[in-house]
């Protein structure tokens, strides 16, 4: 009897273990927050691609006393009572912040497309960097996506803010509508969410043409969700959509002429550059089979900040491989590879953000997201933060790329094949470290916007750079040169931010 | 009875080894006997130059041949005539012959299992027994788990299984079926890859390791000084998992395989015996196509 009893207990334990199902990846749900400020002067903030917010004329809305408006308002009020669970999910999802949500979507798409042809899996060999429908992502590509997206969002929102306070159509809350989620108390016309949705959709569809249909669905859901939420009426959405379409077209126009489309070097001119390099040992690919380097002309992409100022700071050639200084640097990488601690491995892995991820610039967008949320920045301010951060990071990527393909300095493992790395060796030359450049540009900008977190952000910027030494893929001089350069670029962004009208 | 104790140990240890070279299931059908103990020290080497991406065989010139060596200490003790405790701890080193992936080395997972013989029927001169076992394993140190060349997956595992063991003279056959529940692991970085079902990329560093079911059939002969068996083992991912790919965290991969192998044991003198084994992979999923040899010493106490 006793054994029978135990058999039942054991069997039920066994079954209870079998019965559990688990998701592959968990995600947390954060509470919704209301923004800290309304920034009524936002319409006067300096735009980036537009000359000013006045470039775009937002038509005068119908008066709130008009029949048209009252019908719209009644529709929203009635709709509030009848939304279904799916609509409610959409309402909550987008209420977290349109700018942040579209930034997340952009990170997902960058990760999706951040693939090298023939990398690890022979079956993925169909991806080609020359196919515009399958844009091979890279650090420069990723940084550009985030920059274009946040610039379009920011310019569209400045235009929207200007029209909001120009026409002052009262928010729905002041008209007795109890919204389902916290809504920023600003004039409702034009809808900032519709502006964000349309600008983001247009930009991302330009960069990822194969995702157009999916993005369009997301944008439609975003706009609709604000009607379901009771945040605005359809004419607010329409106006936001229209102004953003014009802004997006302007930003896409800039993107078409920023020389990125030739960055993958269709004519293989990089070999000429390699021959011209004055460094005593030249880079070769460590991939087997050998791959062409990543985006050789990525350093010629148009910068957001003054290109002379950006490129003037280009560091000079590092010490020759025969010098004692170089040998010391190589020895440091070798020692690191041989004695790497678990913590150093963790740091290398934490900041790697390599192939098939949203990239290091995506990682900084992820970090910024937390800061923006904690600071309870409204949509306009969020877009400004991202636009400052991402322009600096793209310029950082462009800058480091220009040095990488000027000097063609070999990776440590090329100089000493015994150096094993904690993360994959990027398939491009080593000097300067794009990681250090991007990270220090990012931390400089974020430390300015979030002064309370400056100490931590600067430490993170330094750690992201030194992680490449821990990994064994960069020399210390790559990282130091990159970090100095990144700081200079970050400072250009900060100087601009000080005078853009935002307080 | 004593020789069975040794063989049980052998089979057990080959099994627990390394989650990437887990060979033969948790335990066999032979009970230790009350207050009988044994200790075994086994060395093994497993190699592969092909691995499976999902179920497609792949050769990677940036990896070459991966060799995993391990030394495992296994102890077992009969807590009662129908209840055994088995404990194992391996030290593992794994290394790739090409490319720039570093070798990994260290203590892997500590495993412990309780095996209970619930029923024992006599059918003429033969015997049929029905057993249950629960096992638990946890990493002995925070080793690197998110790499193709790694000593383990770093998860804590709970293992429940049942088995039928039939013995006729020196012949035996055992069938067992189990479920291994694998706990979450922390990556060194935030999840930063594309996952279509994961709309919000702010998922932190924790990921789930897919659970597996396991089927093992083993048959052979066992006499006092000698033991020989042949076995088939199949692990099948139960929960949803990913496939090996650039950027994909290795611990979330759905890992499965089908292997065959053989084990031999020979008693030398007194309480000292020798063991040897061989196994090969028939098919796999997100794992190396291992072939494996092992050998060791078994001491009854």
TrEMBL record, chain A:
One of its GO terms (molecular function) is peroxidase activity. Coiled coil: none annotated. It comes from the Bacteria. SUPFAM superfamilies: Acid phosphatase/Vanadium-dependent haloperoxidase. Residues 405-491 form the Phosphatidic acid phosphatase type 2/haloperoxidase domain. InterPro entries: Br/Cl_peroxidase_C, PAP2/HPO, PAP2/HPO_sf, V-haloperoxidase. Residues 1-21 form the signal peptide. Gene3D superfamilies: 1.10.606.20, Vanadium-containing Chloroperoxidase, domain 2. Keywords: Signal. This is Phosphatase PAP2 family protein. It comes from Spirosoma validum.
UniProtKB/TrEMBL annotation, chain B:
This is Uncharacterized protein.
């Amino acid at each position: 009897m006793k054994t029978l009893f135990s058999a039942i207990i054991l069997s039920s334990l066994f079954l209870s273990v079998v019965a559990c199902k688990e998701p592959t990846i968990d995600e947390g749900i954060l509470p919704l927050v209301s923004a800290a400020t309304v920034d009524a002067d936002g319409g006067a903030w300096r735009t980036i691609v537009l000359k000013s917010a006045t470039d775009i004329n937002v038509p005068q809305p119908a008066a709130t006393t008009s029949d048209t408006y009252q019908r719209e308002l009644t529709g929203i009020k009635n709709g509030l009572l009848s939304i279904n669970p799916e609509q409610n999910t959409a309402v909550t999802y987008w209420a977290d912040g349109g700018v942040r949500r579209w930034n997340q979507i952009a990170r997902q798409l960058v990760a999706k497309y951040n693939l090298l042809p023939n990398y690890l899996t022979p079956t993925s060999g169909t991806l080609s960097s020359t196919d515009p429908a399958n844009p091979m992502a890279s650090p420069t590509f990723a940084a550009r996506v985030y920059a274009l997206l946040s610039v379009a969002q920011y310019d569209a929102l400045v235009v929207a803010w200007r029209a909001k306070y120009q026409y002052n159509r009262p928010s729905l809350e002041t008209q007795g509508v109890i919204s389902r989620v916290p809504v920023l108390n600003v004039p409702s016309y034009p809808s900032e969410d519709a502006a964000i949705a349309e600008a983001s959709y247009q930009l991302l569809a330009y960069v990822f043409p194969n995702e157009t249909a999916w993005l369009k669905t997301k944008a439609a859901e975003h706009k609709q969700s604000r009607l379901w939420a009771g945040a605005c009426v359809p004419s607010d959405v329409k106006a936001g959509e229209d102004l953003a379409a014009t802004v997006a077209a302007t930003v896409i126009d800039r993107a078409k002429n920023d020389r990125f489309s030739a960055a993958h070097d269709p004519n293989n001119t990089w070999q000429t550059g390699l021959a011209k390099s004055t460094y005593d040992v030249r880079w070769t690919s460590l991939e087997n089979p050998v791959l062409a380097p990543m985006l050789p002309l990525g350093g010629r992409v148009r910068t957001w900040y003054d290109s002379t100022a950006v490129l003037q700071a280009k560091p000079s050639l590092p010490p020759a491989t025969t010098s004692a200084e170089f040998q010391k640097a190589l020895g440091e990488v070798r020692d690191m590879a041989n004695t790497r601690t678990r913590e150093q491995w963790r740091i290398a892995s934490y900041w790697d953000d390599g192939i098939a991820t949203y990239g290091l610039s995506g990682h900084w967008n992820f970090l910024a997201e937390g800061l923006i949320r904690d600071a309870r920045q409204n949509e306009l301010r969020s877009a400004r933060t991202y636009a400052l951060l991402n322009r600096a990071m793209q310029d950082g990527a462009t800058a480091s790329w220009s040095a990488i393909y000027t000097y063609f300095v070999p990776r440590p493992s090329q100089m000493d094949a015994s150096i094993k790395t904690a993360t994959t060796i990027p398939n491009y030359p080593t000097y300067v470290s794009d990681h250090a450049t991007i990270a220090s540009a990012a931390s400089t900008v974020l430390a300015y916007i979030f002064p309370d977190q400056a100490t931590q952000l600067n430490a993170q910027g330094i750690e992201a750079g030194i992680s490449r030494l821990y990994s064994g893929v960069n020399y210390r001089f790559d990282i130091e040169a990159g970090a100095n350069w990144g700081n200079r670029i970050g400072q250009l962004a900060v100087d601009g931010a000080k005078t853009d009208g935002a307080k | 009875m004593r020789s069975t104790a040794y063989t049980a140990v052998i089979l057990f240890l080959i099994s627990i080894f390394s989650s990437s070279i887990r060979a033969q299931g948790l335990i066999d059908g032979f009970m230790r006997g009350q207050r009988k103990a044994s200790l075994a020290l086994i060395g093994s080497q497993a190699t592969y130059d092909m691995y499976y991406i999902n179920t497609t065989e792949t050769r990677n010139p940036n990896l070459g041949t991966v060799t995993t060596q391990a030394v495992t200490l296994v102890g077992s003790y009969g807590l009662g005539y129908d209840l055994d405790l088995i404990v194992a701890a391996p030290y593992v080193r794994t290394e790739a012959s090409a490319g720039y992936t570093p070798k990994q080395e260290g203590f892997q997972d500590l495993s412990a299992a309780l095996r209970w013989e619930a029923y024992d029927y006599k059918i003429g001169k033969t015997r049929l027994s029905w057993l249950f076992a629960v096992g638990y394993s946890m990493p002995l140190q925070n080793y690197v788990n998110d790499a193709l060349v790694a000593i383990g997956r770093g998860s804590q595992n709970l293992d429940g299984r049942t088995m039928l063991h039939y013995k006729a003279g020196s012949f035996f056959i055992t069938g067992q079926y189990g479920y291994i529940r694998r706990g979450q692991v922390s990556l060194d970085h935030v999840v930063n890859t594309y996952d279509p079902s994961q709309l919000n990329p702010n998922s932190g560093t924790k990921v789930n390791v897919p659970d597996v079911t396991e089927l093992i059939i083993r048959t052979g002969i066992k006499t006092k000084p000698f033991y020989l068996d042949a076995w088939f083992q199949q692990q099948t991912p139960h929960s949803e998992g990913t496939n090996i790919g650039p950027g994909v965290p290795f611990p979330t991969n759905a890992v499965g395989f089908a292997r065959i192998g053989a084990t031999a044991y020979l008693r030398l003198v007194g309480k000292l015996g020798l063991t040897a084994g061989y196994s090969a992979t028939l098919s796999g999923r997100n794992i190396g196509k291992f072939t494996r040899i092992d050998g060791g010493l078994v001491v009854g106490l």
